[in-house]
Structure formats: structure tokens, C-alpha cells
TrEMBL record, chain A:
One of its GO terms (cellular component) is AP-5 adaptor complex. InterPro entries: AP5Z1, AP5Z1_ARM, ARM-like, ARM-type_fold, TPR_AP5Z1_C, TPR_AP5Z1_N. Residues 1-260 form the AP-5 complex subunit zeta-1 N-terminal TPR domain. Residues 301-419 form the AP-5 complex subunit zeta-1 ARM repeats domain. Signal peptide: none annotated. Pfam families: SPG48 (PF14764), TPR_AP5Z1 (PF25153), TPR_AP5Z1_C (PF25154). It comes from the Eukaryota. Residues 431-779 form the AP-5 complex subunit zeta-1 C-terminal TPR domain. This is AP-5 complex subunit zeta-1 isoform X2. It comes from Cricetulus griseus (Chinese hamster). Coiled coil: none annotated.
From TrEMBL, chain B:
It comes from Cricetulus griseus (Chinese hamster). InterPro entries: AP-5_subunit_s1. Transmembrane segments: none annotated. GO terms for biological process: double-strand break repair via homologous recombination; endosomal transport. GO terms for cellular component: AP-type membrane coat adaptor complex; cytosol; late endosome; lysosome; nucleoplasm. PANTHER family: AP-5 COMPLEX SUBUNIT SIGMA-1 (PTHR16120:SF0). This is AP-5 complex subunit sigma-1 isoform X1. It comes from the Eukaryota.
């Protein structure tokens, strides 16, 4: 109902004078600076009415855009009284739509917008409003609420898209300045051209250019921009859809070849017709992207079009397998072309995705494409951050789709993929934490662990590789603030070629080449920021690695890993804080592996004996040493492994005793700096544990412990250990001595059976270890209280 | 489709952490379906939530940009606003992409494509299946247009008060968040239209 009040409001809005409008705008601006209240809303709504009520370009675009932006910024509103029904021109409608679509669809705004747009689309008059501004809004509607459109609207849009995509004019448009007064003798606009300047050979696409564009050529560009989204929206999701009946006549690829004739295809329903047109469009784009563009921006667009064409073909083949036959041949040809033009290799990722989705149906071996993507490309382009992201994301995203063959190819290519990680660690670490578990397999585990520990070296080596191979005219991709002539020389030195080659390999080689000489050579690069960033990522990756490995490793592999941990813990690249952080992970993993397989202590007794026999281990890796000593004490017993013999226990005992003697008796020297108290107490405890199992060692241990107790009180050693440390050593020695006084209790405490370790207070208070200990200590204290000293 | 476009501050890579990362401009194209929340303050909460999401993205872009600049050895002086008109080569500016999982912070998983030019960061938040190459070149185009038409790098520039121009550029080159396949001629035509509507 158009009331008199509304009529006068409109009249006022149309007749407002410029100065009054200016004043009003100033008032609005002031209102907006204060906290918004009802007056602000009212003023803005009035302003909008003024703006939208006039047919002529009264208020310039600037004002409209700003108003729409303000309303959009303040969205969502609970009570927005804005509707798109009265807007006359489509540009304004697009602005109003942007506000409405920002409301979160509280009151069905999305449906409103789509209804209005379709009403305009249905209007077929050539002088009708330009639809150009509406397609993006429609695309947004589909993205936000796919179910909003009805079947007839779907069909209408599909038909329109077919027209715009396939039948856009191939003549250039007239310049906009040519109006009513241009003379008939004005030069007719020529045909559109390709990006390399040649006359267009076929229908208009986004890679066709000219001096001016016509309306339908604009629509062609817009239509292609939203094509993939529309195909996905309107395509059948599952085989049991209503489209299946239509497709039954097009079964088999032979039939689709026949139906490629254009006359037959015009009889297809709108959706199928659109697919056919989309296919032709993509084929044309593939051909057009082969041309050498005259302008750089066009060259970039060609590559983006390549990617999009492959993506659209993927969607088409998913929706209608009869396209597969025709698509395969042109895609295989495409792969051959890739890599010739820098930047075109970006199309490799969608190409690989295509073959992943359709390779089986195509019965085609896409091995060469996966090889290119996973092995060659990372080595050649590791420095491109977006390519790195795309490739790794492709891997993590498609893990569920990889068949065993591709999976094994992926696993063999891990050295190549690590190059992405080494060069771009901050954005890729999270992705690799997801990817690593899939890359781990029994055959390459050891090699991968070495590679992870040497990852910062890989970063340094890649930097050197770039320095050596890039031409001076290219922009430097390496760290320009770092000058390392020495490292560069070493990189070129034939002596180290083999090692660098191994480090920079693209496939898992199975060989365990040790890169220790490189650690020293690459040391000057340790302060390089990129190397440091990589070094920070390694501990996280190690955790991810081990969490997978511990699940799938068998006994032999666990032994191998433990030896590797011991070996590498003192042969790590010297980046700042790298050693400390990695040690923390290696130690905890060593303990976890021992817990997983306690018998490894007995199986690897020879290597462990060698490890603890070496005093210098204490200085370079005290924490690892402590863990090993603790593990020996914990797991070297018959309960853990029946093969444990008394000789083994005695041998370890002697070695550890000698070691403890050396660290506590001698003065600190340059060779043996102050030994941390944790090492001392760990040694003492382990010796006691071993003695409790081989009881004729008890007197030796007791004697040693009491000596240590007095030693700790000796002022001469107070310079070696702080008062707290000395106190800790003393206390521990006392505890151990106390326990050893009752050998059977010591055995029970130090070598409990599995059942005893679980406190089962509710079942049996007598066998609970903590309670037992408390009882014993109370008994012994009482006894000690009766004795002097 | 692009979900959002934002401009934010970038602090120098080697300086101490002073100040916050500020979002200077953001545009969200259409609202995400708001999580089921029947409470009456829904609208305000949605708006606040949206702002927080954008800020989270800006912070992540800033830290990644900083790390990348440190890694390539750019000295900290480079980040001081270079008050000059010389064209900044955008192909060489630090850039990258990263993934945001579902719920962190957007409901749907998204990809972010970003670029840093001197003291400003620019980012596009997109659907994960979007054409990344097109998104990168669109972002480069937007940055070039913004630098040209807003003179973002000249001193005393108060571009915060001229965001209508940014809006004008976005309505033409990224309408409703739709990435467009614009060849050079289309770009020129759109730029002409824009300059006509927004005279300098």
C-alpha cells in the first residue's frame, strides 16, 4: 500500500538540495562518531532513502559505496529495514545485496536477494539493466545458501551461462565515448585478438583481448569466473540423483564421442548443455595458454587459466564420466608442456589431483606425473612458498585416496619433500606433523630419523646450492645478509661432493651415510635465520615421528633406533639451542622405547656397556647418560628378560662403579668438568639396584655408599658441589644404604614384579609397593634411632 | 570464493615487540552461518566474533611475514616506511599461503594468501578449493591498485579516512569476493571506470 506519507517521503528525498544534502551528510558523520543510537540508524536510513530514491546519477557512486560499506560494517543488525525491491539500477542492487548478505541470513535475506536477481535475469530485453554486477552476488548466494535456488532458476542460469560462455561476440566493442553522435563512417571495430596479437581463432574467452569489450564479453568473463562453483552447485552429488535417468542414454564413452556433434548437443537439457560448453571452453583455454603473451599480466593469467581449466575438467569428469575419454588425451599432452615455462608447473598440482580422482577409471598410469610432483618439483622449486604449501597440502589432503603404489612413491620421495620443510619451516611445520605419520614406513625409518636430525644442515646446503647456481642477474633468493665464502668453497670442493649429494638427494637411498664432516663445515651458517627457524621445528617433528614409529616398530627396528639415538646424541649440528632441545626429545624417546621393549637392555648390553664405559659421555651428553644409567638399573634383570645373566650384571656393575669412582674422587679438570649431581645419584641408585639382584655385590656397594656419604660432607668437595647438591647426594646415599640393610626388601623394592607396581589398595594392601616402602622405612628408622650416628 | 580481505600493520622483523598488530581495514564478504546460538545478543556477538577472527588472521600473517623476512636476511631498516614514489616490485615482496583448520578460527577450513609490502600486510581468506594462483595474482593486483590510488606509502597519508576508495576498488576487482579472470585489457578498463568515479 503506497500511503500518502510514503509518497511525501519519496518526494522530499528526490527534491533535497545539494547544500542540504551536504549538511545532512556532515550531521551523519558526526552521529557516527558517537556511540550508535537510534538517531544514527534513523539518519542513515534516511540517507539511504535519499540515495536510492533518485533515478538519475544524483549522488555519485562514492556516496553509495560508502553508505553500503558503513551498513555492512555495522552488520549484523537485529532490525535492519532494508530491502532490495526498490533499487533500480543493478550496481546499486549489488551494493544493497552486499549489506543484506552480511546479515547472517537471520530473516531470509539471502532468498530475497536471489529472488530479485532472478527477476532481473528473466528479463530478456537487450536494453535491460546490465546483469554484469549481479553475477558475483549470485555466486555469493550459492556459496552461502546452496539450497536457496529452485530447479527452474537453476535451469535459467545454466541456459544464460551457456549463452554468455559460448556465444559472446567476437567483435571488439565500441569505445564508450562513441555515443549517439558518432558518424557512420567511424571505423568498425575489428575482431578480438588472442593474447599474442593474432586474430582470434574461435569463440571469445577470458584469454581473448581487444581495445574495448562489449557487455556480453564482460559477462563471458564473469561467467567463467563463477563456472566451477556453479557446476559443483548444480551438479549431481550422487549417482542416485534425478539426472541419472538422462544419463542412461549417454552411457559409454563411444556414445559421448558421437554426441560431440554440436547439433545433437543443443538438444541436451540445460545442465548437460552447460557441461558440454564448459568442456569446449576449457579445451580452448588449454590451447590459448600455449601462446606467448605480449603482456606480463596476460602471461600470469594464462597460467591461472591452465589451473582453472584442469580443475573444471576434473569437476566435469566427476559429474559425467563420459567426458573422461576426451579429457585424458589433452591432459597428457598438457603434462608434457609443463615445466617449460616457469610458473606453469603450478598446474601440476591440479593435474595430479585429476589423475588421483580419475586414474582408476582411466586405467592410466599417472606415475610420471606423481614422480614429477613429489620428487622433481620440490628439488627445483623449494623456494616458492605458495608452491610448497600447495604440494604439501595436496599430500595431507589426499592421504585417504592414495593407493599403496602412490603411498610407497610418496614415502620414497621424503628427502625431496623435506626440502620444502627445510626452506619454509614456519608455515609448513603444522602440515608436516600431519604428514609425517603417513611417510613413516619400516624400511626408511632409520634413514628418515637421520634426515630429521640433519634438517638444519639441509637448509644450509639448499642455501649454498642457490648461491652456486643462480645467475647474478636474478634476484637473490638466499639470505643476503650472510657472507660465507668458506662454506661456499666447501660446497664446491670435490672432496665433499658425495656428502652434499647425499644430503640433497631426491629419493630415499637406503644408505646410512654419516654427515658428521658437514656439521663442522656448515657451522658458520648456524646463525642464519632460516637455519635457526628450521632448527626450532625439528623437535616438534621428532615427536610426531616417534609417536608413529613406536606404534609400528618391531623388536629389531626398536634396537636399531635406540642405537641411533645413542649414536647421534653427540653428533648433532651445532645450531644455538638445537642440541639441548633435541636431547630433550631423544632422551624421552629413549626411555619410551625402553619401556616399550625392556629386553633391549639385555640385547644391546654390549653397546650400552661401551657407552657407559666412556667418561667423556658424561660431559657431552649428561642427560642422555643419566637416562641410560637409569634404564640399565631398571631393566637389567631377569624379570625383564630371562636371558639376563649374573655375569652381565657384574660387568655393568664394575663399569659403573669405576665410573662413579672417577667422577667423585678426582678433582674436576679440563677433561672432566664438574659432574652434575643427577648423574651421581643415578649411578648410585643403579649400582644399588644391580647389587640387589646379585647379592654378593652388596658389601661393595654399601662400602662405596658410606664413603660417598662422608665425602659429601668433606669441605674439600664443597668447592665441587653446592651445599644443596651435596645434601642431595648424602640423602640418597643414606636411603640406599638403609634399604640395603634388608636385602630381601631391597630386592622387592628395586626389582618389583609387574603386579606389585600397580597400587591395588582396594584389593590387597599388603602387596602395594608404596605402602611396603613406607612400612620398611618406618621400621628401619626406628632401628636407626636406636643406633648411634 | 574469497571470504575476507584485510590490511594490517607489519612491525619490523628485528625490533622488539612493541605495540600490537592492528587491523587497518577489513571487508568480510557475506556472513558465515552463525553458530547455533539462540541468545538474544546474537548480532553483536557475531560482529565481535567476526572482528576477532580477522584479527587472528592478521596476527598469523604478521608473524609469518616477519619470519620470512628474517629468513631472507632483510635488514630491519627496510621496514621503515620508504617515503618514495618508486614502484615497489610486488613479485619480490614477501608472500605465502597457509591453512586454517575448521573452527580455527573460521567455521569452515580456509586458506589464507598473504603479501607484505613495507609496513603493511595484505591478506585474502579463501575457500580451500579455490584457484590459488588466481588468488595470488588478484592479491597482487589489489595491492598495486591500492598503492597507486591511495598513495599508501607516502608520509602523512591518512588512508584510514579514505576507505571509500578501497571499497570502490574492491567492488570492481573483487565484487562480493568473486575472483575474476581479468586479462590486462579488462584491468585497464576497470581502472578507467574507477578513476572516473573516484577522481584523484
Amino acid at each position: 500500500m503506497f500511503s500518502a506519507g510514503a509518497e511525501s517521503l519519496l518526494h522530499q528525498a528526490r527534491e533535497i538540495q545539494d547544500e542540504e544534502l551536504q549538511r545532512f551528510c556532515t550531521r551523519v558523520t558526526k552521529l557516527l562518531q558517537e556511540p550508535p543510537g537510534p538517531a544514527t540508524m534513523d539518519a542513515l536510513q534516511r540517507l539511504f532513502l535519499i540515495v536510492s530514491a533518485t533515478k538519475y546519477p544524483r549522488s555519485p557512486e562514492q556516496l553509495q559505496v560508502l553508505c553500503a560499506a558503513i551498513l555492512r560494517e555495522m552488520s549484523p543488525f537485529d532490525d535492519l529495514a532494508l530491502s532490495c525491491d526498490h533499487t533500480q539500477n543493478t550496481r546499486q542492487l549489488s551494493l544493497v545485496a552486499s549489506v543484506l548478505l552480511a546479515q547472517g541470513n537471520r530473516k531470509g535475506e539471502i532468498r530475497q536477494v536471489s529472488q530479485r536477481i532472478f527477476k532481473i535475469l528473466e528479463n530478456r530485453q537487450p536494453e535491460g539493466p546490465s546483469v554484469r554486477h549481479l553475477l558475483p552476488a549470485l555466486s555469493k548466494v550459492i556459496g552461502l545458501a546452496p539450497g536457496t535456488l529452485m530447479e527452474d532458476q537453476n535451469n535459467l542460469l545454466s541456459k544464460r551461462l551457456v549463452d554468455w560462455l559460448r556465444y559472446a561476440s567476437i567483435q571488439q566493442g565500441l569505445p564508450s565515448s562513441a555515443g549517439f553522435f558518432s558518424t557512420p563512417r567511424t571505423r568498425q571495430p575489428g575482431p578480438i585478438t588472442e593474447v599474442d596479437g593474432a586474430v582470434a581463432s574461435d569463440f571469445f574467452t577470458v584469454l581473448s583481448t581487444g581495445q574495448h569489450f562489449t557487455e556480453d564479453q564482460w559477462l563471458n568473463m564473469q561467467a567463467f569466473s563463477m563456472l566451477r562453483k556453479w557446476l559443483l552447485h548444480s551438479g549431481p552429488e550422487d549417482p542416485g540423483s534425478p539426472d541419472a535417468d538422462d544419463k542412461s542414454e549417454l552411457e559409454g564413452s563411444t556414445l559421448s564421442v558421437l554426441s560431440a556433434a554440436s547439433t545433437a548437443s543443443r538438444l541436451l537439457p540445460p545442465r548437460e548443455r552447460l557441461r558440454e560448453v564448459a568442456f569446449e571452453y576449457c579445451q580452448r583455454l588449454l590451447e590459448q595458454s600455449n601462446r606467448r603473451a605480449l603482456r606480463k599480466a596476460d602471461s600470469d593469467l594464462q597460467k591461472a587459466c591452465l589451473v582453472e581449466a584442469v580443475l573444471v575438467l576434473d569437476v566435469l569428469c566427476r559429474q559425467d564420466p563420459s567426458f573422461l575419454y576426451r579429457t585424458l588425451s589433452c591432459l597428457k599432452a598438457l603434462h608434457r608442456r609443463l615445466g617449460e615455462d616457469p610458473g606453469s608447473e603450478r598446474a601440476l598440482v591440479p593435474l595430479a589431483q585429476f589423475f588421483l580422482n580419475h586414474g582408476e577409471a582411466a586405467a592410466m598410469d599417472a606415475e610420471v606425473i606423481y614422480q614429477h610432483l613429489l620428487s622433481r618439483l620440490p628439488s627445483e622449486r623449494f623456494y616458492s612458498p605458495t608452491l610448497a604449501f600447495e604440494v604439501i597440502h595436496f599430500c595431507t589432503h589426499n592421504l585417504a585416496l592414495f593407493d599403496p603404489h602412490i603411498l610407497s612413491l610418496l614415502r620414497l620421495s621424503f628427502p625431496s619433500l623435506f626440502k620444502f620443510l627445510a626452506w619454509n619451516s614456519p608455515p609448513l611445520t603444522a602440515e608436516f606433523v600431519v604428514l609425517l605419520p603417513a611417510l613413516v614406513e619400516a624400511g626408511t625409518t632409520v634413514e628418515m630419523l637421520h634426515a630429521l636430525l640433519d634438517l638444519p644442515c639441509l637448509t644450509a646446503a639448499l642455501d649454498l646450492q642457490l648461491r652456486s647456481t643462480q645467475t647474478p642477474s636474478e634476484r637473490p633468493l638466499w639470505d643476503v645478509s650472510l657472507r660465507i665464502p668458506g662454506c661456499l668453497e666447501a660446497f664446491r670442493d670435490p672432496q665433499f661432493q658425495g656428502l652434499f649429494r647425499h644430503l640433497l638427494r631426491t629419493k630415499a637411498s637406503g644408505s646410512m651415510e654419516r654427515l658428521t664432516p658437514l656439521h663442522q663445515l656448515l657451522k658458520p651458517m648456524a646463525s642464519c635465520a632460516r637455519v635457526t627457524q628450521c632448527a626450532e621445528a625439528v623437535p616438534i617433528l621428532l615427536q610426531a615421528f616417534f609417536s608413529t614409529v613406536t606404534q609400528l616398530a618391531d623388536g629389531a627396528l626398536i634396537n636399531q633406533l635406540v642405537l641411533l639415538l645413542l649414536d647421534r646424541s653427540d653428533s648433532l649440528y651445532q645450531a644455538p639451542q638445537y642440541e639441548a632441545r633435541v636431547h630433550r626429545v631423544l632422551n624421552s624417546q629413549f626411555l619410551a622405547l625402553c619401556k616399550l621393549k625392556p629386553s633391549l637392555v639385555v640385547e644391546l648390553s654390549r653397546e650400552l656397556l661401551e657407552f657407559v664405559g666412556n667418561v667423556s659421555s658424561i660431559c657431552s651428553r649428561a642427560s642422555m647418560f643419566t637416562c641410560v644409567v637409569w634404564a640399565i638399573g631398571e631393566y637389567l634383570s631377569v624379570t625383564c628378560d630371562k636371558r639376563c645373566t649374573v655375569e652381565q650384571i657384574n660387568k655393568f656393575f664394575e663399569a659403573l662403579e669405576a665410573l662413579l669412582f672417577e667422577v667423585t674422587q678426582s678433582r674436576p679438570s679440563a677433561d672432566l668438568p664438574c659432574c652434575p649431581p643427577q648423574v651421581v645419584t643415578a649411578l648410585m641408585t643403579t649400582l644399588t639396584k644391580l647389587a640387589s639382584r646379585s647379592q654378593d655385590l652388596i658389601p661393595r656397594v654399601s662400602l662405596f655408599l658410606s664413603k660417598l656419604r662422608t665425602l659429601a660432607q668433606n669441605p674439600a668437595t664443597s668447592s665441587v658441589h653446592s651445599e644443596e647438591d651435596a645434601e642431595a647426594i648424602r640423602t640418597r646415599a643414606t636411603e640406599l644404604l638403609t634399604l640395603l640393610k634388608i636385602p630381601s626388601v631391597a630386592q622387592f623394592v628395586f626389582t618389583p614384579t609387574a603386579g606389585v607396581c600397580q597400587p591395588r589398595y582396594h584389593r590387597d594392601a599388603n602387596t602395594a609397593l608404596p605402602l611396603a616402602l613406607r612400612t620398611v622405612s618406618r621400621l628401619v628408622e626406628k632401628e636407626a634411632g636406636l643406633l648411634p650416628g | 570464493m574469497v571470504h575476507a580481505f584485510l590490511i594490517h600493520t607489519l612491525r619490523a622483523p628485528n625490533l622488539e615487540d612493541t605495540g600490537l598488530c592492528r587491523v587497518l581495514y577489513s571487508c568480510v564478504f557475506g556472513a558465515e552461518k552463525s553458530p547455533d546460538d539462540p541468545r538474544p545478543h546474537g548480532a553483536e556477538r557475531d560482529r565481535l566474533f567476526r572482528k576477532e577472527q580477522i584479527l587472528a588472521v592478521a596476527r598469523q600473517v604478521e608473524s609469518l611475514c616477519r619470519l620470512q623476512q628474517q629468513a631472507s636476511g632483510c635488514p630491519s631498516t627496510d621496514l621503515q616506511p620508504q617515503f618514495s614514489d618508486e614502484t615497489v616490485s610486488l613479485h619480490e615482496a614477501p608472500h605465502g599461503a597457509f591453512f586454517l583448520g575448521a573452527g580455527d578460527p573460521f567455521q569452515e577450513p580456509q586458506t589464507v594468501v598473504w603479501m607484505g609490502v613495507l609496513s603493511l600486510g595484505f591478506a585474502l581468506v579463501l575457500d580451500t578449493h579455490e584457484n590459488l594462483l588466481l588468488a595470488e595474482s588478484t592479491l597482487r593486483l589489489l595491492v598495486r591498485l591500492l598503492l597507486d590510488h591511495l598513495r599508501l606509502l607516502t608520509p602523512g597519508n591518512n588512508f584510514l579516512l579514505r576507505s571509500d576508495r578501497i571499497e570502490g576498488i574492491l567492488t570492481r576487482f573483487l565484487p562480493h569476493g568473486q575472483l575474476l579472470f581479468l586479462n590486462d585489457q579488462f584491468v585497464q578498463d576497470l581502472e578507467k571506470e574507477f578513476s572516473a568515479a573516484w577522481p584523484r
